Target: MFS family permease
Amino acid sequence: MKYVVFFLMLCVGVPLLANRAVIDAKVRGLLAGGIFLFALLVKQGKVNFVSMETYRGPDRGFEVCTCDLIALALCIVLHKKYPERIVKFPPGSWLLLALYIIATISVAGAEFKLVSFFSLFKWARAYGIYWITYNMLRMPWPRRNIWLGMVIAGWTLFLWALKDKYIGHVYRVAACFDHSNTVPLFINQFLPVLAMWGLTDKKLSNAQSVLSTIGCLGLCVASQSSFSRLGMLLSVSGFFGSLLIANIFCRTKRVRGVTVFAVTGVIVGGLLALPSIMERIRTAPEESELARKEFNIAAKKMAEDHPFGVGVNNFSHALTKQARYSQFITVMEDEDEAGVCHHIYNLTAAELGKPGLYVFVVILVYFGGNALIGFWKNRHNMVGWLCMSVFIGECALHVSGFAEWVFRITPVTYMYAIMAGLAMGLKDGGGYDLIPQKKKPVKKLKALEVQELQAVEEAPCAV
Model:
C-alpha cells in the first residue's frame, strides 16, 4: 500500500504542489520549511526498493523519502519560475564530484557491489538536497519559513522524546530514528542555528523568540534522553556557543533576557538529570569501548590493504566474510553479521582508501571554512551570525565523527547537506531579506522648491 501512496505522491502530488508553488509564495515558503521537517522524518516517510534490512551497513536499499519528493517539487519550481537565477554547479560541487568518483572506483574492488550502489544512490540524492538548498536561497521567497521548519522539527523531536521516555519508558530514546546515537548527531547540526535565529531575528516577535528558545531547550532534553555521553555534551556546548556569539555581536534586551532564561533552563534541567547522567557514565559497559577499538584496528588494516578501500558501504561485509579482518573481533565475534566501525574517518579510509579520506576531510574543511568566511563578511548582521552557528553545528558533527559513524545515516547526511547549502547560500548573498534595510532619509523641500515643483506639475504638456 505504501508503494501505491508513494507513486501517487510522485506522479500527482509533486506536480500539483510544484505548480501551485510557482504562483503562490506561501506554498513556496512551506516547501522551504518542509525540507527541514522531513529530513527529520526520513524513516517514517520512506519506501525502500531492493530492501536488505538484515545488512549492518549504513545503507540497506534504494530508499526514497518524502524529503526527496519535496526537493523534487522545489526543483520544478526553481526551473519554472526562476530559471535565469539557477547556479548549475553550486560551490563545492567539484569536490563532491571527486568524492563520488572515488566511491565509484571503490565499487570495482568491492565483493558486495549491490550495497555499494545503495550508497551511491543516496549520495546523489544528498547532493540534490544541497543543490536545492543553495539555489533556494537565491530566490525571492520567505526565508523565515526555514526558521519555522526548524522550530517544528525541534518541537517534534522534543515531544517524541518525551513520549518515548515517559509513556514508552524507553531508557535510551531513539525518537524517530533507528538508534539513540543518531539523536544528538542530528540535533547538534541545527540546534545552534535555531537558537541564533530565534535570538537575533528582529522581525520575530518576543513570543516567537521564546518558542524558538524553548524548542532548543527541548532539543537538549531529547539529546540527554538518548544518553549519548559525547552527544549530550556537544548539544549543550553548541547551544551555549550560539548564546555567546549572540551576546557578543547582538546586544539587545531580547538577547540578554532570553539568554538568562535559557541558561537557567539548562542549569535546572542539568541538575534534575544529573543523577541519571552519572549513572549512565558509571554503568557504561567496558565491552562497548573495547569493541570500538577492535573495529578501528580492522578498519585501519582494510585501508592498508586496499588503495581505494574495500568498497563504499562494504565494511560490514568485509569484516564478516574475510578472516584477516574478523580475526581482530573478539567482543562481538558471535554475531552473524558484523557491525560498522564507530569512527567516521577510519570507516571512510577503510571503504574509500586514503584518497577518499583526504577528499572527505577537504570537503568538511571547505564547507566549514566558507561558513567562517560568511561570518566574517557579515559579522555585523544576522547573516554572519547564522553562518557562525552553522559552523558550530558542523564542528559538533565532526567531533562526534571520532566516536560515531552516524554521519552516513540518511537523516544526518541530509541535514549536513541542508546546513552546508544554507551557509553557502547565505555567504553568497542569499540572506538579503534577513538584514534590516536602512531607510533613505526623505529630503525636506524648501518653500521656493515647493513652488517650483507645483509650477512644473501645473504647466501644460508640450506636444
